[in-house]
């Protein structure tokens, strides 16, 4: 159990804010600190703050949801969840890793772009990952790429880390291509990314990937990811599929720029 923090949500002016623009006040010192939800570096530095904010207050259920539908898809295929070698991409402070460990997996490798995520994982969940890399998948060094690939992962999970300026298209595909053919891909995405009126490169890429020859979808489910600051439910899709083959560069270039 971590120390509780004094968190205050803004009382007005939050309507119409994008999810990545949402913020709160942390009352730890005399002057309250204004933190955006996407200030992950600062949030992870305060032990227990991420958990209290997203899981206790805003009732996020995504790690459990994505892990559950991954487990049922693997079971449907008569494979063993406990034999999976999982790459947790956008691992943060290890909430998804912890969930996967409850099911039991063979190997668990975490990746995040910021060192604060790694530091928080080592501080709070040191037992969860077999290895954890701080890396930018849009510009991986050869040695980093070889080392991560050497884990021979046959499953990738990405939870609450796609869209809103988090993991970009190029990085997602780079990680996808590191997973073995016939390996499992499990992720979640805000429901609006499925809307054809969303013309952003990321939305178009995700929509096309889901229905492409590169992925065979096993399970797709709309569910309540968490609440917004003003208490409204935020709906996401959780998706689990199997990778058929690597996504070629030509697929990616269609969505860049
Ligand atoms: C909302 S957190 C989710 C963390 C964890 N998956 C969970 O469910 O609690 C999003 C994470 O994605 C990471 N992230 C953002 N962009 C990234 C990138 N390009 N590569 C890897 N991780 C990234 C952030 O640093 C942050 O830790």
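^ Assign residues to that structure.
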């Amino acid at each position: 159990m971590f120390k509780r923090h004094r968190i205050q949500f803004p009382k007005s002016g939050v309507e119409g804010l994008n999810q990545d623009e949402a913020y709160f006040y942390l009352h730890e010192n005399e002057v309250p600190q204004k933190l955006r939800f996407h200030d992950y570096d600062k949030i992870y530095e305060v032990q227990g703050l991420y958990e209290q904010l997203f899981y206790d207050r805003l009732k996020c259920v995504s790690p459990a949801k994505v892990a559950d539908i991954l487990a049922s898809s693997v079971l449907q295929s008569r494979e063993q969840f406990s034999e999976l070698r999982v790459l947790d991409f956008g691992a943060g402070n290890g909430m998804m890793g912890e969930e996967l460990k409850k099911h039991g997996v063979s190997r668990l490798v975490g990746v995040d772009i910021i060192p604060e995520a790694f530091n928080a994982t080592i501080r709070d969940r040191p037992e969860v990952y077999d290895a954890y890399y701080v890396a930018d998948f849009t510009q991986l060094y050869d040695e980093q790429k070889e080392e991560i690939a050497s884990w021979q992962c046959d499953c990738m999970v990405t939870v609450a880390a796609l869209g809103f300026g988090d993991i970009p298209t190029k990085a997602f595909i780079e990680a996808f291509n590191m997973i073995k053919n016939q390996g499992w891909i499990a992720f979640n995405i805000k429901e609006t990314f499925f809307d054809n009126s969303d013309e952003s490169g990321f939305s178009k890429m995700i929509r096309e990937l889901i229905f492409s020859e590169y992925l065979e979808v096993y399970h797709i489910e709309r569910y309540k990811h968490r609440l917004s600051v003003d208490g409204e439910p935020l709906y996401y899709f959780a998706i689990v599929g199997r990778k058929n083959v690597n996504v070629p560069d030509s697929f990616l270039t269609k969505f860049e720029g």
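The radius of gyration is 18 Å.
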